[in-house]
Amino acid sequence: MRVAHIDTGREMRGGQWQVLYLVRGLASAGVESVVLAPPESPLYCRLREEGWPAEPLELPRLLKLRRGVDIVHAHTGRAHALASLLLEPSRLIVSRRVAFAIGRGPISRWKYRRAARFLAVSRFVANQLVRYGVPADRVRVVYDGVPLLPASLHTGPIIALASDDPRKPSGLVRQASSMAGVPIQLTENLESALADARALVYLTRQEGLGSAVLLAMGAGVPVVASRVGGLPEIVVEGETGWLVDNDPKEVSAALRALVSDPYRARLMGDRARQYVASRFQLEHMVQATLKAYEEICGC
Question: Is 151 domain-assigned?
């Protein structure tokens, strides 16, 4: 089987990491991949550094995908639009990772008719697609997979992601931290910070799933996460972390509970690690994706 992946992202965010993980995993399963991405993007550079086939995202190369590949997999909304315009929909698979509402205009309706399968990152996102009008038999839930990092030492700070994303209310993090009297350290390098983190605070107004939360849980780090989107599908309330409304009092109460009972927090982290190991490792994501490919191409 030969698969062409299209990704238009210009940052190395969760979706781009999933493309990289998927290409690696598919290769182990005997599937040949080529990725079309902006040549200046971190994903393109990382693929080339590792020796995986990557080509600049240009019109002539897109048109070549009309032949020579079994599956075209669009990984972003813009990739979906480009593939819908240029390629045969019967071989098109689209990943949808975002939680915001789908547009209701005629172009959007046309675009969402032109794919053989949609891979939703959570049940929440899958339900959005079905409510929009995508036939349920074209939708599959494929959760993110994450590498299982070494278990945290739990000797460091409580952390949160440094972000200028307006959907990630950093002001709420600071307010809740002040109210609880619990310091929170912002980080731009999550994987490094998880080496000794005591907990991850992940507040957001909308979320398709939350791969950063899965990464933390896989490192044995309990989480305090917003009760929105797909996050309740991966955080088991009271067992692997705390789910909170985006209210400073509720967040601060979760922080106080975290620091007042470190034994319970450590136990939650252990359960979180086991939970990720059993459901959200990279192989789970690769196999679920491969199954969707096989459904439409019979390869």
Answer: no
